[in-house]
Design a protein that fits this description.
five-stranded antiparallel sheet, about 160 residues, SH3 type barrels, alpha+beta, flat
Length: about 160
């Protein structure tokens, strides 16, 4: 291969990379915690864990899933319901107001909750055991348990509707 041909090939390669970078979209995690998975399936093995407010770069998409790259270079799949496009901004109109938020606060705010809304809801629903709600949030289901559940129930690709 001549020097000119190699140079042209290099230029084409650089152009392709530049176009790919320009078209890449930044996605922001909008749920409290989510997994980057090996395959676009909820029961696929996790390859990384992300928290609310973290960003990833979208590589491609497929049937409700985004193939992404994390800031650490890990590639995998995230369900579209766990992310938002664009950037999350917290702004204060008064300098005395809080201008930062925890990942938990960002996740709740994304769902329309804040401390005041939560306190009002609790005051109107005194019969709800919120300790049990917190306990349910701590339940962890492994990918294998989820796969077995889907298979046993003949759900999704194991025989039922998607």
């Amino acid at each position: 291969m001549s020097k000119t041909s190699r140079f042209k090939l290099l230029l084409i390669g650089v152009a392709v990379v530049c176009v790919a970078l320009l078209l890449a979209e930044t996605l922001i995690i909008k749920v409290q915690t989510t997994y980057v998975r090996k395959e676009p399936k909820f029961y696929s093995s996790p390859v990384a864990t992300l928290n609310a407010g973290e960003s990833v770069t979208q590589i491609s998409s497929q049937a409700g899933w985004f193939k992404v790259r994390t800031s650490k270079g890990v590639e995998g799949w995230i369900h579209s319901q766990a992310v938002a496009t664009g950037k999350l901004k917290v702004a204060a109109m008064d300098k005395s107001l809080k201008t930062s938020a925890t990942a938990n606060e960002v996740a709740l705010a994304g769902k329309g909750f804040n401390r005041q809304v939560e306190a009002e809801y609790k005051s109107r629903n005194k019969d709800i055991n919120f300790g049990e709600v917190e306990r349910m949030l701590r339940i962890k289901v492994t990918p294998e348990e989820l796969r077995r559940f889907l298979m046993d129930g003949k759900l999704a690709e194991f025989g039922g509707a998607r």
